[in-house]
Amino acid sequence: MFLAPFFGYLGDRYNRKYIMSFGIAFWSLVTLASSYTPKEHFWALLLTRGLVGVGEASYSTIAPTIIADLYVKGKRTNMLSVFYFAIPVGR
Length: 91
Fold this sequence. Notes:
- The structure is a single chain.
- By secondary structure, this protein is mainly alpha-helical.
- The protein has one domain (4-89).
- It has four helices and no strands.
């Protein structure tokens, strides 16, 4: 949540596809790392789960702008509603 404005700033100035791709890769890696965290390292679990939010902030901030660029006005609303509906369902 705190990094979403930062990724919005980057998305306005640099290539959105690269930023989003990096964010998804980072998100996937820290999610995988949190799966293999042993019980005795609870602090590492908290750290990796916190870092999941960094990857998610990059994706959820930049993806709507890419969707808006790809679809025309009539179809754009439907595609954005599918995206926003899938965010809580996908968790």
